Amino acid sequence: MSVDSTVTRVNAGIKRARSGVGVAGPGRTGGRSRPMSKRGSTTLVLLVAPSVLLLALINGYPLVYAALQSVRDGTLIAVGSLVGLDNYVSVLTSERFWSSAGFTIIFTLVGVFGSWAVGLGLALLLHTRVPARGLIKVLLLLPWVVPIVVSSTAWNWLLATPDSPIPQLADALGFGRVLFLADPTLAAITVCVFKVWISFPFMMLMSSAALASVDTTVYEAAEMDGASRWQQFTRMTLPLIARSTYISWILMTIFCVNDFPTIYLLTGGGPVDATNSLIVLAYRTVFQDFQTGQGVAIAFLMTITLVFVSVLLFRQMKKVDTP
């Protein structure tokens, strides 16, 4: 029996489990549930309505108010006059916006896939019989558990000045006094590495939970069929945890695009706007340049992009769920 037949058999079992059909076939109801009565539906709507209304008021009002601000030439203390889409035009024709958008894309790609690769690798390692596995897992969670202010302060102490330990070590190794947060390229690399550092524990937890749900007999059958470890990983492990992977990518994409403290506390968006992301640019536009309309317009453009990316990933996840 080949690896493909093993994967097909596993997918067939997953399909039966999702449809509520066991080995012996469907139950007495034939896998169908009785439709809810009209009275039950009304009761359900009445119970859910207060929560839905509260969420709509909490989230809907700020969203509508922000949308109105994005089409006005206002400040923090004045509503301003209606300017239509001029704020969006000004933002989209700004070189600073596209520079920040470029760094945001790089920061997000490195943050998502870098933390996922590290987290998945550690999850696979901890899935084996490692001594003191519980203690190691707790220690690996520290970068995510420690407050971002503490982590950024520690990295500033390690990298920021010529007298910091890492620049001194680089000088001792013959590289000179490397100023990691003063050089634009090195600052961008440092911020991306820092994001991976504080994010990989989340990916590790997501991957560990997904791996724990995979039946070990699948791998035993694959080994009997002669599948190598790489074949098991690429053709069995990754497809079986694909749903959890897409969910973690969606969440981490949102976290990276909206990540303000990581960049602002480490570099403040500098040097010379080299690490200026869209969320930092929106903050500076509103609270330093006092151009509320353009700052909110940037935030709305970010939201639209996030929705688009999330929809694409959700569609990919739906393809995975479809047998």
Structure summary:
72% of the residues lie in helices and 1% in strands. With 323 residues, the chain is mainly alpha-helical. Strands 1-2 form a two-stranded antiparallel sheet.
Provide tags for this entry.
15 helices, 1% strand, 72% helix
Distance between the termini: 21 Å
Biggest sheet character: 2 strands, antiparallel
The radius of gyration over CA amounts to 25 Å
Total strand count, please?
2
Average per-residue pLDDT, rounded, comes to 83
* Major sheet: arrangement of strands: 1-2
Task: Give the overall shape.
Answer: flat
- The poorly predicted ranges are 16-32
Estimate what percentage of residues fall within beta strands: under 5%
Q: Could you spell the SSE succession in H and E letters?
A: HHEEHHHHHHHHHHHHH
Give helix % range. Answer: over 70%
The CATH architecture term is Orthogonal Bundle
Briefly note the structural class of the backbone.
mainly alpha
Q: Tally the helices.
A: 15
CATH class: Mainly Alpha
What is the CATH superfamily classification?
MetI-like
Counting structural domains, the number is 1
CATH topology: MetI-like fold
